[in-house]
Amino acid sequence: MEYVSTRGGAGAVDFEGALFSGYAPDGGLFMPQRIPSLDWDTLRWWSRLPYRELVKELCSLFIAAELIPRSTLNDLIDRAFSRFRHKDVVHLSRLKDGLNVLELWHGVTYAFKDLSLSCTGQFLQYFLEKKKQHVTILVGTSGDTGSSAIESVRGQKNMDIFVVLPKGFCTQIQELQMTTVIEDNVHVFAAHGNSDEIDEPIKELFADVDFARKYNLMSLNSVNWSRIMVQIAHHFYAYFQCAPSLDTTPLPMVEIVVPTGGGGNITAGCIAQKMGLPIQLVAVVNSNDIIHRTVQHGDFSLSESVKATLASAMDIQEPYNMERILWLLLGFDSRLTKMLMERFSVSKSLKLPEDLHRKLSETLRSCSASDEDIVRAMQRCWEENRYLLCPHSAVAAHYHYSQPNSMPRCCLAPASAAKFQDALLRAGLVPQLPPEITALRAMETRSTPLERGQDWAQALREQIEAMARRRGIAGQGVTQT
Question: Which of 43, 195, 287, 366 could form a disulfide bond with 307, CB atoms 3.0-4.6 angstroms apart?
Answer without folding.
Answer: 287
